[in-house]
């Protein structure tokens, strides 16, 4: 997840996560309740891009 955030930052996309959604996503990924597509959607929402 950190690699994805750094990649996005290097490409001018800032992720804002005031509610801790990425923490919850990281736990969900570890528990296999979420997949890469779900994570990509969260990144889109937190970056304000669609």
Overview of the molecule:
There is one protein chain. The protein has one domain (2-9, 17-47). 62% of the residues lie in helices and 0% in strands. The protein contains three helices and no strands. The chain is globular, with a radius of gyration of 10 Å.
In short:
The protein has three helices and no strands.
What does the secondary structure layout of this molecule look like, with pairings?
Layout: H1 2-10, H2 21-30, H3 36-47
Characteristics of this structure?
50 residues; mainly alpha; 0% strand
For the sheet with most strands, the description reads:
none
Count structural domains: 1
Strand coverage percent: under 5%
Radius of gyration: 10 Å
How far from one another are the termini?
A: 19 Å
Overall form: globular
Number of strands: 0
Mean of residue pLDDT values? 93
* Class by SSE composition: mainly alpha
Number of helices: 3
Low-pLDDT segments: none
The ordered string of helix (H) and strand (E) elements is HHH
Q: Which range best describes the helical content: under 10%, 10-25%, 25-40%, 40-55%, 55-70% or over 70%? A: 55-70%
């Amino acid at each position: 997840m950190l690699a994805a955030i750094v990649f996005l930052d290097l490409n001018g996309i800032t992720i804002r996560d005031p509610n801790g959604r990425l923490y919850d996503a990281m736990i969900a990924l570890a528990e296999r309740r979420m997949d890469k597509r779900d994570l990509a959607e969260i990144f889109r929402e937190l970056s304000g891009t669609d």
